[in-house]
Amino acid sequence: MKTPSSGPGDRRPPSSKRPRPDGRPGKRFPAAAGSAARPAENRPAGKRPEGKRPEGKRLAATGPAGKRPPETRSIEKRSAGRRPEGKRVAETGPAGKRPPETRPAEKRPTGARPEDSGDSNAADLARRHATKSEQKVSGVRACAALFAHRPGDIIRVYLTANRKPTFKALLEHCVAHRLGFQVVEDESLQRLSAGIHHEGIVILAREPARGGADDLLAGIESKRISGPLLWLDGVQNPHNLGSILRSAAHFGCGGVVGERASLPPLSAAAMRVAEGGAECVPLFAIDDPVWCLGKIKKLGFRVVSTTSRCETLISAAGLSRDVVLVLGSEAAGVSSRIVALADTQVRIPGTGVVQSLNVAVACGIALAEACRGESSAGAGGKAAKAGGK
Description:
This protein is 28% helix and 13% strand. It has helices spanning 122-129, 140-149, 168-176, 186-193, 213-221, 238-251, 268-274, 289-298, 336-339, 359-388, and strands spanning 134-138, 154-159, 180-183, 201-206, 229-233, 255-259, 283-286, 302-306, 323-328, 344-346. Helix 6 (238-251) packs parallel to helix 10 (359-388). By secondary structure, it is of the alpha/beta class. The chain is elongated.
């Protein structure tokens, strides 16, 4: 048998049958002795072994023999669920949104739910629960008054272990009405109440709605609201508001009134300083102070403004419970439009060493004088009747 030539320019005649390279019949016989193997670069590229189909045109290899350089590899095919580092996944969902299956899973702390985890999450939990219509109340007396007057407004209770005996009835109420309560450490209550004067308990509750001018006037007409009344003109400090509410509750004040734009909110500090008085004295927010004060005067109330720049002493003003005591801010005093509506201006006597009293202190003195005046009048009337007999 004649051995074909393997020179560079040699080609097998088209009619000759080429042996198959896959080992089946027709296997290529080894070249005869003395003949040279065909160089790899001169092999025809007509057929490619089965199972290896090129993706488009074959790229010239520049790396190690038999391997395509990394920079020239096609990225059209990619294994499912894997994406190269630093490359953005092609969006397959609606425009501008990442498909749900490619969104990273949210990291969630292991263990129990936030409500059941330790007291380290108590402050964060309270912030998540709190809204603009809710308030935090701290302090033993303030929380006890809240439970006594508005148990239905309680949302959640946080307290230290040593306060559990004191608020046993409150905790039983929480269990009966499926309300959350949590025993926490002192540090957590400091974060919850934003202070150190929490006294071992903080309650998250719904904030009571403030009355308006119609509510106030209707209450006076129906005798549900009686004097004395307090009118705050520009008083902003929450601690002063808390002290005023405490004095108002002590003297049986019918309500604390102020312009809606300037009447401060009942903050946690104001509620604590009030020592429960905020639950006993209603607040009224008025849109038109001039109109409202005029209506109150027609219902038989006397408007008395406090100041440090007049001659009439409060003890000589003849105050009674049917009075509206107007208190201004310590910086500006009572505004001129309210002074113009006052029937009387009075002054609390003093040495003059300081310009004025704290507004909460002045409030207590004025309320005491109004109540004392009524008591004196009642005693005088009884004495006159006794003398006539």
